Amino acid sequence: MSRTEETAEGAGPFTTRLTWRLDDGGTAVWESRPARKRGLFTVRAAGGREPRTRRADSVSIGRLRRLNSVTAGAFTVGGGFFAVGAGVAQFGPGDATGAWIYFVGGLFFTTGGYASLLQSVNAPRQDDGTVVRAVRRWRWWSYEPTRIDWLSTFLLLAGTLVFGINLLSSLLEGLSVRQVDTLVWAPDMVGCLLFLVSGHLALVEVCHGRPRVRSGDLGWWIVAVNQLGSACFMAAALAAFTRPATGSLVNVDVADWGTLVGALCFSVGGVLQYCEHP
Description:
Elements: E1 3-11, E2 14-22, E3 27-31, H1 32-38, E4 40-44, E5 52-55, H2 58-91, H3 97-121, E6 125-126, E7 133-134, H4 148-169, H5 177-207, H6 218-239, H7 252-273
Antiparallel strand pairs: 1-2, 2-3, 3-4, 4-5, 6-7
Helix pairs in contact: 2-3, 2-7, 3-4, 4-5, 5-6, 6-7
């Protein structure tokens, strides 16, 4: 299937959709998220006939399916642990149990973040001169900041790693108020910011430009629910600042409930992602 003309769409330096006019008069459309999540692109034949979807090779499809299962499962379970941790913090005895539950949940979040990056790194790529998606050698890492999917998933992974500093520090005992704000609260804020930027890029990717509502698109719902979870995490982080004068949090209830709702959003997003597979 050879191509003759190319039209690009996206935002800023990022390309999220490419359209080729084919020699037979039809068109082929590549979209970033369906390509890396499902290994698919759309072909519309000449004459306005019903468009068809074409998929990548079987090796790439198998990779994407396995990575999708890992990503979906990790965020579903990780969000569940965070929700339980928030519940223990709000209604439990107030000991270190909640901190350990958060820590285990953070391990699942990091696993999900890395699996998301691997989906981008190993997404089927275009063969020269065609629009066929072809298998590439498996890679554990790449550096492609000009690709919006890579940058979004990289920032997501970076956010989970920064959260790890927050979760590890929260296990320490005898910290002063200043140490708590430096080792626990500050990494929490940075992680939330990274999550929000990652989610914004994911919205730009799925909307091919300015974020808007696309209620008929499963990918949009996944990204939107996760972004809502990131916003709840940010609200919880702001409320979790420890006042130096009193040694108390700005608002304990907002901190706990924001974390709980945000965690449930990521769990729901993980469940929805099970359906977004090749």
